[in-house]
Design brief:
By secondary structure, the protein is mainly alpha-helical. The chain has two domains: 1-80; 82-143, no CATH class. It is built from five helices and no strands. Helix 2 packs across helix 3 (70-79) and helix 4 runs antiparallel to helix 5. The longest helix is centred in the N-terminal third of the chain and has 32 residues, at 3-34. The radius of gyration is 21 Å and the shape is flat. 7% of the residues are buried.
Length: 143
């Protein structure tokens, strides 16, 4: 992958994140001033604002750092080698397949036992991350 193309994509993502964060911030300020905000709405717009806005700004800072540092550019080029792309894709596919099986299993279990979704979602999210990293390690040794 061309490093310039990668940096242009990163800048585009950063701008989109900043726009979403700014819209959420403006909406949050308007709702706070008008007094029409409740607990869940405050959490949603606060999360969007303080998630997307700093992410976009820090992504722009990261692009600036990468442009000035040739060693970091080499790291990005190595990260996008064919073998590494293959390992990430294969591990993602295997983790996704495992998650489908787990979700189906939890669905079958929920037919007999009442399972709370507030308990189930964090378990599935953690299992997804752990399975991806596990498959990545196994595939790196295998291939």
């Amino acid at each position: 992958m061309n490093i310039e193309k990668h940096l242009k994509n990163q800048i585009l993502f950063a701008i989109v994140y900043i726009i979403i964060g700014t819209i959420a911030l403006i909406t949050l300020v308007i709702l706070l001033v008008s007094g029409n905000i409740e607990g869940k709405l405050l959490g949603i717009f606060g999360g969007l604002t303080f998630g997307f806005l700093p992410l976009g700004i820090l992504l722009l800072v990261d692009v600036y750092r990468i442009k000035r540092n040739p060693a970091m550019q080499k790291q990005i080029e190595l990260k996008n080698e064919e073998r590494n792309i293959f390992l990430r894709d294969k591990s993602g596919n295997q983790a996704f397949s495992l998650m489908i099986i787990l979700i189906f299993g939890f669905w079958l279990l929920s037919l007999w036992v009442n399972i709370s979704s507030s308990l189930l979602f964090p378990i599935l999210l953690g299992a997804m991350s752990l399975s991806y990293l596990t498959f990545l390690g196994l595939n790196a040794r295998k291939y």
